[in-house]
Amino acid sequence: MLQIKGLKAKIDNKEILKGLNLEIKPGEVHAIMGPNGSGKSTLSNVLSGKKGYVITGDVTYLNENLLDLEIEERAHKGIFLAFQYPLEIPGVNTNIFLKTSLNAIKKAKGEKELDAIEFLKLVKQKASELKFDEKILSRQLNVGFSGGEKKKNEILQMSILNPKLSILDETDSGLDIDALKIVSEGVNALRSKESSFLIITHYQRLLEYIRPDFVHVLINGKIVKSGGSELALELESKGYESLS
Amino acid sequence: MEQLKIDFNKVIESLKLSDESINYRNKNFIQFIENGFPNKRAEDWKFSDLNQIISSNIENLRLQSNFEISKIDETIFIDKFLHNKIVFLNGVISNVDFSHENDTKVLLTRDLNQNENFNEVNPLVSLNNALTANYIRVTVKENYSFNKPLIIYNVTTKDLKSTALNLKTDIVLEKNSSLKVINLFDDNSENNFINIVQNFDIAQDATLKNYKIDHKINSNIKYCYNNINLEKNSVSENFIFSTGSKFIKNEINCNLNDQYSSAFINGILNLTKSQHHEIKTNINHLAENTKSYQLIKSVLNDNAKGIYQGKIYVDSKAQKTNGYQLSKALLLNENTEFDGKPELEIYADDVKCSHGATSGNLDEDAIFYLMSRGLSHQQSKELLINGFLLDAVEKITDEEIKDLIKKMIGITE
To answer: CB-CB: which of B365, B366, B413 is closest to A96?
Structure first.
C-alpha cells in the first residue's frame, strides 16, 4: 500500500527526515515511536501533503507517486491524518464540515453524495459507537472542545471517512484512560484486511490497546530499529538512549 | 461646482417651494458650497477622499432633476417574508405600503422637518437638506409594535447616470414602540452619487432594529448618514452589510441621551476588486448606565480597501458606561488595505470601555486541516471566510433577516 524509500525532508534549510525507509502492506498496523524532535510529526505532515517542506526520495501509495498529489487528492484516495493538535475553526459548524468533507471525497471517487438525512443517520451511528455526544457536532468545529473531545472528533471523522491509510499523530497525548479506551476501540473497529494504520506515539501505552504488527524506532530522522510489538515494551523499560 | 450651482437653482425653481423652504435650502446649499465634498484634509475623511473619489469616478456630476414617479419592477421585492415597503425609485418615492399595520398607529408625513439641527457641520448633510425632494417620516405610535418589518428599497435603474441623489427618511419611535427597518439597495445604475440621511428618534422603552444591506455589485458612490437619538431604556440594534458599491461610507452618530439606553452596531465589509468601503461611528454616552457594543468584520480581496473609524465618547455625567468595540480584518491579498482608527474619549471615571483591532491573513494550518479532509483549497478558504463573517452575522437578533443575509453571503446550513 505504502512504500517509502530514502525519504528526506527539509524545512527552513534544516534536515528533519534523513533517509527514511518504510513499507506498509494492506491490513497492517505500524507504530512509529521516537523521542521528541526525531521527525515523527514531520513524517505525518509529509505523507498528508503539508506545504513548506523540501522533499527528496520516493513515496509510492497504491502504485502512484504520492508526492505528486495535492493535499485534498491524498484525502480523496484514502489517506487520513488524525492531527496531534486538531485546529479550532471558528464559525464552521462541525456537522456541516463533516458533510462537506465526506461528500467531497465521495464526489472525487465518483460515488453518490449523501443528502442531509442519510448523513445525519451515519453521523448518529458513528457518534454513538464512539460514545461521542452528538450535541457537540452542532457546535463550531473544535472550538471550546476539551482535549479529549478534539481527539475523539478526529477518530469520528476517521470512522466516517473510512480511509485506507490512517495516520494517527500522537492521538494518545492528552487523553485520559477512558478516552484512550474509546479512541482505541474506534481504531480497532476500523481494522480490516484493506485498511492500514501508521500510529505515531511517544509511549507504549496506546499500543496496549491497539496492538501493532510492527514497531519502528525513529531517531534523528531515520528508522534505527524495527521489530514486532514486543519492541515497544523493550523501549518502555530501556528508553530510547539505548538505541541512539 | 459651477454646474451644481446652476443645477441647484433650476431644481429649486422646479420644486415650487414656499419662501421659507427656499430660504432653508439656500442656507444649506451655501454651507455645502463653502465646504465642498469632503477631502482627506478633513480628519474624518482622511482614509476616504470623497472629493477625489467622485471626480475620478463620475464625469460631469449633475443634480437630480427628474422627480416624476415611474413604475417599479415588483420582481425585485424580497419574497422570503411579508413586509411593509417604502420604495425610492431613482430618488423618487414610488410606493408606500404599510398594509400589515394598524393605520391608526403609524403616521406618515411627507413634509420636510426644517428645524433639525445635527449639532455639527457636515457638508453632505447640508447638501442633502438643500436638495432632498422626496422625504418621508414614519412615526410609530406609543405602545405599538410593527407586525412585519419595513423595507426601504433604494432602487436605481440603468438609465440613471452621473446624477447626485439626495434622499432623506426619518423614523420616530414613540414610547414603548418597536420597529424593524431594512434599508436595501438595488442598484442597476452606474456612476451616481447617492447621499442618504436618516434620523431616528427612539423614545423611552422603544426598540429599533436597523439593518442596512448594500449587496448588489455596482459602480455607485454612496454616503449614508444615520443620526440616532436614544432615550431612557431604549435599544437600537444596527447591522451594516457592506459589499455591493464601488464606494460607500456608512456613518452612524448615536446619542445615548438617557439612562439604560443601549446601542449595538455590528457589520461586515466584504470587498473585492477596487471597492472602498468605510464604516464610521460616533457613540456618545451622555447619561449613566448606558451601553454600546460594536463588532466589525472585514474581508478584503484583490486591491480593496476597508476602513473602520469607531469613536466612543463618554461624557462626565455618563458614569457606569459600558462601551466596547472590536474590528477584525482578513486581508487575502497583499494589495489590500485596511485602516482602523479606534478612539476613546472619556470624561467620567467609573466606566468600562475597551477596543481591539486585528488584521491578518487566513490561517494556513487551518487550510491544511480542511484540505486534509478532502476539501479543495477554494472550498477551505470559503469555509474559513464564511466562518469568520458568521461571528458578526450571528449578532443579528432577527432570525428572518439573519437568514436573508446569510443567504446573500452564501453561508449554507
So the answer is: B413
Question: Any idea what DSSP says for residue A156?
Answer: H
- CA–CA distance, B313 with A93 (Å, rounded to integer): 37
| Sequence letter at residue A89 | I
Tens of pLDDT, residue by residue over A163-186, are 999 999 998 888 888 888 888 988
Hey, is the C-beta of B376 within 8 angstroms of any chain A C-beta?
yes
Using the Cβ of B362 and the Cβ atoms of chain A, whether some distance falls under 8 Å is answered with no
Closest-CA residue of B relative to A162 is: B373
Shortest distance, CA A155 to any CA of chain B (angstroms): 12
- Using a CB-CB cut-off of 8 Å, the residues of chain B touching A70 are 371
Handedness of CA B359, B365, B370, B374 (dihedral sign): positive
Which of A14-18, B76-80, B331-335, B407-411 has the weakest average pLDDT? Answer: B407-411
Are A164 and A62 in contact by the 8 Å Cβ rule? The answer is yes
Neighbours of A53 (CB within 10 A): 17
Strand order in the sheet with B262-271: B92-97, B84-89, B150-156, B178-187, B207-214, B235-242, B262-271, B291-300, B322-331, B352-360
Closest Cα of chain A to B240: distance in Å?
19
Q: Do B391 and A71 touch (CB under 8 A)?
A: no
Among the partner residues B365, B377, B387, nearest to A92 by beta-carbon distance: B387
Provide the domain limits for residue A37: 2-243
**CATH number of residue A181's parent domain:** 3.40.50.300
What are the residues whose beta carbons fall under 8 Å from the beta carbon of A125, sequence distance 6 or more? none
| DSSP β-bridge partners for residue B402 | none
| Residue-range domain boundaries for chain B | 2-258, 365-413
Which is nearest to A122 in space by CA: A98, A138, A146?
A: A98
Pick from B363, B368, B406 the residue to mutate for testing the A interface (most A CBs within 10 Å).
B368
CA distance A71 to A51: 9
Positive or negative: CA dihedral A71, A77, A82, A84: negative
Give the model confidence (pLDDT) of B191-218 as tens digits.
Answer: 999 999 999 999 999 999 999 999 999 9
Q: Nearest-CA distance from B396 to chain A in Å?
A: 15
**CB-CB under 8 Å, A87 with B363:** yes
Tell me the torsion sign for CA atoms A227, A233, A237, A240.
Answer: positive
Cβ neighbors of A192 (< 8 A, separation 6 or more) are: A27
Cβ-Cβ contacts under 8 Å between A and B: the total is: 76
Q: How many domains does chain A have?
A: 1
Distance CA B241, CA B226 (A): 15
In angstroms, the separation between the Cα of residue B64 and the nearest Cα of chain A is: 44
Q: Closest approach of chain A CAs to the CA of B394, in angstroms? A: 9
Strands (E), chain A: 2-11, 14-24, 29-33, 54-61, 64-65, 79-82, 165-169, 196-201, 214-219, 222-227
Reported ipTM: 0.95
Query: B139 forms bridges with which residues in the sheet?
Result: B107, B172
Q: Are B245 and B185 contacting, i.e. CB atoms less than 8 angstroms apart?
A: yes
